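**User:**
Everyone, produce one record:

**Assistant:**
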Amino acid sequence: MYNSQLPTDGSNAPKGTSIGVEVFDQRTDRRGNERIRLLLKSFGLRTSLIRLKVIDALLTAAESDRSLGVRGVHTHLLELDIPLSFLSVREVLKRLCSEGVIVLNADKSYSLDPRAIAVLRHH
């Protein structure tokens, strides 16, 4: 039964359930998304789910000392059950590149522009 006085967090967990790792990961993801939102805003770009996920994929790859091209980003998103077309991913990468958020490397991989890294470190 719905109780308007109880907070709604979108969780269907029964009362008395302890907070597990899954909830912690969601909170961490939100903080990471907030950093990416601020990054996009600092470059004058609107936030969109695809931009958030593409930048997050590049950040994840960089933390693992890997580089990703269009196909790598697309595959990463598909593994996360984010059904985006290859063309959509390519267009977002091209736009982020043209706005100076990311750079296209000589090996056709993408990475964050040093200015974008500085913005992320600042926040």
Observations:
- The longest helix spans residues 21-42.
